[in-house]
Write a structure and sequence with these properties.
Blueprint lengths: L4 H26 L2 E6 L3 H15 L3 E6 L1 H9 L6 E3 L3 H9 L9 E5 L2 E6 L20 E4 L5 H12 L3 H4 L3 E4 L2 H9 L5 E5 H6 L4 E6 L9 E6 L6 H12 L1 H9 L6
Parallel strand pairs: 1-2, 1-3, 6-7, 6-8
Antiparallel strand pairs: 3-10, 4-10, 5-8, 5-9
Helix pairs in contact: 2-9, 2-10
Length: 259
């Protein structure tokens, strides 16, 4: 069968037009926001993410891990739009290396550090000083290299002159939720996590004490747009939602202090 040249041109044009429409459609449907966030934000951000998707029509993809691990991923070139850290220091380091848009950076929440015990085992615990007691054999906290909650705990040890007295008792978790599980399962005597994490396991652990005021750096949560983001407007809208009354109410519901 022979095709006339005009017909061939028409067929090619139709195929190209269909291909372009298909690509545009897929691009629109596949557009999503990628947020790398400290694992302590998991419950609050899951709820905020649902609100964001309902408002914008854009799906969001969350990557939850320790803030230090997420920082390393971003520095290695991971495709991220927004980073939400559990420590200002990590965001400072990314800013110094020019990975974030510093003008987009906002503190959106704060937290508290608490000592937790397995359910119904807190009777003799009155404060962090109990960690030096010989009867306390195992203390769980976050990895000092990558987990801000562990770093804050180390500051408390320094302030209360506990470092040498507890160093041989420490069991390290790769994030605060792992520390929470060690305590909930009774695998350690005590653990140190954020107040918000303790709330997620209220029926499994008891809050034994809060870290003394001024015993550690302020626990602030900053969020910022990653400079290589391909979804700048979407990322800006997510940060705006965090700071909105609706976002702040959700954060407070999950135990964070707002701004």
């Amino acid at each position: 069968m022979k095709f006339r040249p005009a017909l061939i041109v028409l067929i090619i044009g139709v195929l190209l037009f269909s291909g372009c429409n298909s690509a545009d459609s897929n691009s629109a449907n596949d557009e999503s926001l990628t947020v790398s966030a400290a694992v302590s934000l998991k419950d609050a951000f899951t709820e905020i993410g649902a609100v964001y998707e309902a408002k914008t029509g854009r799906p969001d993809v969350f990557n939850f891990a320790s803030s230090g691990a997420l920082q390393r991923q971003i520095e290695a070139g991971a495709p991220v739009d927004v980073f939400a850290s559990a420590a200002a220091r990590l965001m400072d380091e990314l800013e110094a290396k020019d990975f974030i848009d510093k003008n987009s950076r906002r503190d959106f929440a704060s937290n508290a550090l608490v000592l937790i015990a397995p359910k119904d085992r807190r009777s003799k615990v009155s404060g962090f000083e109990i960690l030096a007691d010989p009867q306390i054999k195992k203390i769980a906290l976050g990895n000092l290299k990558t987990v801000p909650a562990g770093q804050y705990a180390d500051e408390v040890f320094e302030k209360l002159n506990l470092k040498e007295r507890v160093k041989d008792k420490l069991i390290f978790g790769e994030n605060v939720r792992q520390v929470l599980e060690y305590v909930a399962r009774g695998e350690v005597d005590l653990g140190i996590v954020y107040r918000t994490d303790a709330l997620t396991a209220a029926g499994r652990v008891d809050v034994a004490a809060a870290a003394p005021e001024n015993s550690h750096s302020p626990i602030l949560y900053p969020a910022a747009l990653i400079k290589d983001s391909k979804n700048r407007r979407a990322a800006e809208e997510f940060i705006e939602l965090l700071l909105s009354a609706e976002g702040q109410n959700i954060l407070r519901k999950h135990g964070f202090s707002g701004f």
